[in-house]
Amino acid sequence: MLTVFGAGANPRLRTVDRMKRPESGCDRRTVAAIALTLAALTASCSANGTSAASKHAAPASSNGAAAGSSPSAGTVATQRPASVEKNPPGDIPDNIAYITYRNSAGRYSFVHPEGWASVASGASVTFTDKLNGITATAMAAAAAPTVSSAKQGVAGLRSTEAAFELRGVKAVTLPGGSGVLIIFRRNSAADPVTGKVFRDEVNRYEIYKSGREVILDLYGAVGSDNVDPYTKISQSLRLS
Question: Which of 5, 74, 132, 165 has the most CB within a 10 Å radius?
Fold first, then answer.
């Protein structure tokens, strides 16, 4: 602090605060440098925050949807095999009654479990109950199918049956005629209520007699014990 006395001066003490003196050029440069440093640090923190947020954002899928969104249903050619049920709810009861079905357009007949729902159209018919089913269709044919011709036809099954898996092909002779048995697995159609897909095993009989062939599919969930019912149904097949 500095006390000043002088002629004509106010008799009161005049105090000049040296802290109030104008800043020197050096001081201004220092303040400017500090301001620039603070601005740079602020920009850096903002950029780092944005980068960190980007690292944790869900990546987009190829169609622009966030990862983890439900994919659309696959085509027949791209579907993966459905999981096999540990306790498949598909056994046909041993004590169930059987009744005869006759198709006049296709000129064939066989027995099926009583009470199953059915849909018929010309020479074709389908019976279903829970996870089990029977389909049959008839057509004109020049000769009985063989193991060789059946294996050649597998390519067609691969293009029409979801997640197709061939299990075996063998020649068979039934009371109704001769032909082949093709065993394969596929994914079932999705349940209309739950959307669940089951892994089916299909026993396909291709049976020939007198210029006609019947394709008889017997199917149920993989692991179901339907050997006896399938034997009963296939042995009952007749072509007229």
Answer: 132
Condensed to tens digits (0 to 9), the pLDDT of residues 38-49 reads 555 454 544 444
Contact 229, 134 (CB under 8 A): no
Both structure tokens of 61: 């899928």
Quick check: 239 and 210 in contact, CB under 8 A? yes
For residue 53, what are its two tokens?
């947020």
Q: Cβ(80)–Cβ(163) under 8 Å?
A: yes
Tell me the average pLDDT of the chain: 78
Between vectors from CA 107 to CA 102 and to CA 110, what angle results, nearest 5°? 40
Tens-digit pLDDT profile for residues 160-203:
999 999 999 999 999 999 999 999 999 999 988 999 999 999 99
| H-helix or E-strand spanning residue 234 | helix 227-236
Nearest in space to 144 (alpha carbons), one of 79, 212, 84, 88: 212
Left if phi > 0, otherwise alpha if psi is -120 to 50, otherwise beta: which for 231? alpha
**Eight-state DSSP code of residue 19:** G
What is the separation of C-alpha 42 from the centre of its chain, rounded to a whole number of angstroms?
Answer: 48
Cα separation of 86 and 78, whole Å? 24
Segments in 65-202 forming alpha helices (H):
147-152, 154-160
Q: What is the pTM of this model?
A: 0.66
Taking the C-alpha atoms of residue 171 and residue 152, their distance in angstroms, rounded to an integer, is 14
Neighbours of 138 (CB within 10 A): 21
